[in-house]
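task queued by scheduler; priority normal; single chain, no ligands, no partner chains; default sampling; output format set to structure tokens
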Amino acid sequence: MDRISELSDEVLVKILLFVPTKVAVSTSILSKRWECLSMWLPKLEYGHRDCSEPESKRLQCFLDRNLPLHRAPVIESFRLQLISSRFKPENINLWVAIAASHCLRELEILYESDPDKPIILLSSLFTCKSLTVLKLDGDIILDVPRMVSLPSLKTLRLHKVIYSKDETLQRLLSSCPILEDVVVGLRENDTMGKLIVAVPSLQSLSFYIPWSNDIDGFVINTPALKYFKLMDRNYRSYNCLIEHMPNLIEAHLDVELDDMKSIIGSITSVKRLTICCSQTMLDQGFVFNQLEHLDLCLCAPLFPDQLFRLLKASSKLKRLHLFFMNSDHYPQEDMDDWNQPSTVPECILSSLQSLSWSKYTGEPQEREVVVYILKHALHLETATIKSFESEVPKFEMLKELALSSRASATCQLMFE
């Protein structure tokens, strides 16, 4: 007998966890000693995106035959990537039910099949007391029963699933008392009612709304939230009722709404902000009294005014990064004229330490902004300029900016 086979079952199972489930199962042919070891694996992952039809057929037969015999008392994770119409919804539900009966902790399903034949998950899944992570992606109908209780769920990720009713998401969220992390990506060409998220324990929330999607608005009440991300590039008007997030650390906004007051007003406690709103001018009067790091997209014709409104509102800002969220650079001729502010923003005078500019073209309006900041930033330590596809020779940029006056004698000007 080889030395490895002399190890205890517990140690051998731990060794098998370092290889894919398919490889671990194949060790059963080595000897009788290894024949049943894979039946004790606490982490199971089956299928992949490039699974052929013959492979899919073999996988379904394998799971139908072997999963009911699995012996691990606790299944820590059960992951299925099923990219084929061959997998029948009733079989998938049976596999999920078997996994759930083993005190399942993490469930992840990617199901892409015939869009006209989506899978409806068993209602019993929504009363799984041991489940801590639930990730669903693809042609899956989320039909949450009235009696739902997921007392251990902390992470919920829903990508392009189908909601049976407008209130489905709200019902699910409200039944998870310790939920901390939610990511929702809606389907294209879908229509939904108002998205309501009222979860006192939630710490991270991300919404991805595609171009062709239509919703009635948002209601968000998440007082413990630390991370907030909203991507919605459909320029529209809808009602947003978002309560203040006093514990927010980081926010990422890529949105086009005709009224940004509710969103901006809810995130004023943020410490790091990434924002892109090319068609909407932010209102004056808001204050970011904790903001230290600002990433601002320059895809708007009004970007200098947008930038300086944010600078005036952020008296403690230390790092400023200017960039383009997409590959398109806004034409210089479409940009509005910029009038320098009558008073220098407080953060430029007292706290700004780092400036970086990605895809800098050296066009007059951009150059004016850089020169203005260099001229007044008393505590600036570094200014990094990254040229846009080498449209402006680095030597010329160096010559233009290096000769400009700098308030900070220790500021290092760098070009990449």
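post-processing summary
- The mean pLDDT is 86.
- Residues 154 and 327 are 36 Å apart (CA to CA).
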